[in-house]
Amino acid sequence: MKSPISFAIFIIFLFFLVSSAHPGMQRQYYPCKNLVFYFHDVIYNGQNADNATSAIVGAPQWGNLTILADKFHFGNIAVFDDPITLDNNFHSSPVGRAQGMYFYDTKNTFTAWLGFSFVFNSAQHKGTINFIGADPIMVKSRDISVVGGTGDFFMHRGIATIMTDSFEGDVYFRLRVDIKFYECW
Amino acid sequence: MKSPISFAIFIIFLFFLVSSAHPGMQRQYYPCKNLVFYFHDVIYNGQNADNATSAIVGAPQWGNLTILADKFHFGNIAVFDDPITLDNNFHSSPVGRAQGMYFYDTKNTFTAWLGFSFVFNSAQHKGTINFIGADPIMVKSRDISVVGGTGDFFMHRGIATIMTDSFEGDVYFRLRVDIKFYECW
Amino acid sequence: MKSPISFAIFIIFLFFLVSSAHPGMQRQYYPCKNLVFYFHDVIYNGQNADNATSAIVGAPQWGNLTILADKFHFGNIAVFDDPITLDNNFHSSPVGRAQGMYFYDTKNTFTAWLGFSFVFNSAQHKGTINFIGADPIMVKSRDISVVGGTGDFFMHRGIATIMTDSFEGDVYFRLRVDIKFYECW
């Protein structure tokens, strides 16, 4: 390194090095981690106690706790503990549990609000991922927020893209969840 | 660039350049984006099914689903799909929907807890903003957390300052929401 | 500063200076702030209206609003306004309130999901801390997400480690909450 010119080059090199020294900190518009899961919800209807993974626990005045209410289920709150699988087969071996609640919150279309966690305790993943967000069910693909995580997902943030992969009347639905973390730690 | 001195100046210049190369990443105490909205809540009381935008869906043992409960409504959960407007006029054209829940959670004063989303799908804004936080209703101005966003509000975080702009008995209230994003992406 | 060598040293020094110029922004795996609190929950059972700090407000079809339901309380939603203390004594002077909800969401073990805030308004702390996450109650120590804060906890994020410090049947429990902030602003 003999001349000011080579110094300048060196400095500019350092500049870019430093710029990229905070990889998770720059606004990256591509995910630092990407995971796809499915989860399966079977709602209690008064007769399927053994198979049900969720139950209605709140209803508007015109509803009850075994049949989803009129007016697009507006006001029904369901609590769930749903199996998470790697593919879209309900009978696949679960890799974790989706635990939380959803409630229907519109009177003129199917829309829900979600607050839940993915809970993992396997060789592959240990820890939790926490989600909240609006779910306009009739839209093919919709985004909710990944607001935090623990364990393997310590402090992670991101976006989860949800698609209804299947639904059978008011008893069963399956969601595909494409989790894109943009802050990974 | 002929002397070590000019080099030193150049380096110091670079230093500040690099320091400010992560604008969203430094702790900025002024918002990178600021939006003000109003939303309007008309709670179902058994007789206003057409106008109601929210409904009681949970109540304590001493309550019911058409009248807010005694003891400062402690234990009442309401689910809502409320119109968002740019001004404080209930009849203004909505620019989005506020969807989620609130519940009253104190026995000796009016306090609520909020979990909801702003859902936009217009020329001006597309995407969602997700909020949670405590709402001590009797305090003039109170802050909740903006924990995430999608679409135009991808990965945003911030603070929302809420003020009760109007309320009429137990049937109608209007909130002014001043959203200050401090992480904008 | 006479030689290229000393320049190089100076530049390398600057490099590290710049690298550490974003202290909160680098992924730090040690907390920037650490707080420990206890909070105390006395659930309403139909006879303890004066002492109760929480109430069942949602239940599955097989439950009711004064007794926690069969099947590990699956589907019970409770709303709470619990005193926060600095030690594990229920009679200690509260330093704030824990306000929000929990619901039991598993049929074959005790598991809950939490959405709540710590609300402080004292000489020591002013502001709120917002939490969500899965609470596998039978695990000794479990982590939930701190997704935001206001006031003294403006924009903070972190992890809260929860331990059941005491529980007495279905009436009283006390949680120890060890809050570790990793983003402090």
TrEMBL record, chains A, B, C:
It is found in: Secreted, Extracellular space, Apoplast. InterPro entries: Allene_oxi_cyc_Dirigent (IPR044859), Dirigent (IPR004265). It comes from the Eukaryota. GO terms for biological process: phenylpropanoid biosynthetic process. GO terms for cellular component: apoplast. Gene3D superfamilies: Allene oxide cyclase-like (2.40.480.10). Keywords: Apoplast, Secreted, Signal. The keyword Signal applies. Pfam families: Dirigent. Residues 1-21 form the signal peptide. The keyword Secreted applies. Belongs to the plant dirigent protein family. Homodimer. Dirigent proteins impart stereoselectivity on the phenoxy radical-coupling reaction, yielding optically active lignans from two molecules of coniferyl alcohol in the biosynthesis of lignans, flavonolignans, and alkaloids and thus plays a central role in plant secondary metabolism. This is Dirigent protein. The lineage of its organism: Eukaryota, Viridiplantae, Streptophyta, Embryophyta, Tracheophyta.
